[in-house]
C-alpha cells in the first residue's frame, strides 16, 4: 500500500538510486504519473518530460483499456480485446477520439515545455500502475521507434498486474516494479490517496 503517488515515486527512486550520476530523462505518462515523474526526476537528478499515449477504452467499461495509441497514431490492440470481438468501426472511432486528446495535450503542454530528445539518454518511463499494460506498451514502443534511439529504456511502476508485467518486460531494458500481487484488481486499490490528476496540475508541474 502506498500513501499517495509521491510516496510511490520516492520508493521507486530508492530502487533507481544508481541512476543519479547518469542524468536520466524521466518520461511520465499523463496525467496520473506526472507528479510521480517530477518527484522521481528531482530525486534522481534527472530531467522531466511526458510521453503522450492514451488507452483505447472498452465500450462497456470506459476505465478498461482494450488497447492503446501513441502520438504517431500507432495502435496496440490484442486480437480480441477484453475477450470480445469488436467491430473495426468502433476501434477506428475510439482511436480518433484518443488521438484528438493527445493532440490537445500536446497543444497545451508544448508551449510550457518543449519535448526533450531522448536520443542517447537513459530514459525512465513511469506510470502510477499497470492494469492491462496497454499504455505502457504504447509508450515503450514509441521510444523504441525513435532514431537515434535512447541508450537504455527503463519501465518503472509501483504496482502492476502479473499479466501486464509479463507483457511489458520484453519491451524494456529493465523493469522496476515494487508490487505485483496475485489479488490485483485495480491500480487504485494500492493507494490510500488516489485522487485524479487534472491538466491544470500537469501544466503547473511542467512549468516547474
TrEMBL record:
Keywords assigned: Glycosyltransferase, Transferase
Domain Phosphoribosyltransferase: 8-177
Upper classification of the organism: Bacteria, Pseudomonadati, Pseudomonadota, Betaproteobacteria, Burkholderiales
Record Gene3D superfamilies: 3.40.50.2020, PRTase-like
Source organism per UniProt: Hydrogenophaga bisanensis
Listed InterPro entries: PRTase-like, PRTase_dom
Gene Ontology terms for molecular function: glycosyltransferase activity
CDD domains in UniProt: PRTases_typeI (cd06223)
Name this polypeptide is given: Phosphoribosyltransferase
Amino acid at each position: 500500500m502506498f500513501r499517495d503517488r509521491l510516496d510511490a515515486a520516492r520508493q521507486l527512486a530508492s530502487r533507481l538510486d544508481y541512476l543519479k550520476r547518469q542524468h536520466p530523462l524521466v518520461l511520465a505518462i499523463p496525467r496520473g504519473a506526472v507528479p510521480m515523474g517530477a518527484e522521481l526526476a528531482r530525486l534522481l537528478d534527472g530531467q522531466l518530460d511526458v510521453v503522450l499515449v492514451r488507452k483505447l477504452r472498452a465500450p462497456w467499461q470506459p476505465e478498461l483499456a482494450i488497447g492503446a495509441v501513441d502520438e504517431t497514431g500507432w495502435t496496440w490492440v490484442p486480437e480480441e480485446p477484453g475477450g470480445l470481438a469488436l467491430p473495426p468501426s468502433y476501434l477506428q472511432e475510439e482511436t480518433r477520439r484518443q488521438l484528438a486528446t493527445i493532440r490537445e495535450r500536446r497543444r497545451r503542454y508544448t508551449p510550457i515545455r518543449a519535448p526533450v530528445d531522448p536520443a542517447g539518454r537513459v530514459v525512465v518511463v513511469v506510470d502510477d500502475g499497470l492494469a492491462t499494460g496497454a499504455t505502457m506498451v504504447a509508450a515503450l514502443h514509441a521510444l523504441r521507434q525513435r532514431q537515434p534511439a535512447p541508450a537504455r529504456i527503463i519501465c518503472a511502476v509501483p504496482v502492476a498486474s502479473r499479466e501486464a508485467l509479463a507483457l511489458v518486460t520484453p519491451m524494456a531494458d529493465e523493469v522496476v516494479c515494487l508490487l505485483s500481487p496475485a489479488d490485483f484488481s485495480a491500480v487504485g486499490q494500492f493507494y490510500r490517496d488516489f485522487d485524479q490528476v487534472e491538466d491544470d496540475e500537469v501544466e503547473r508541474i511542467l512549468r516547474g
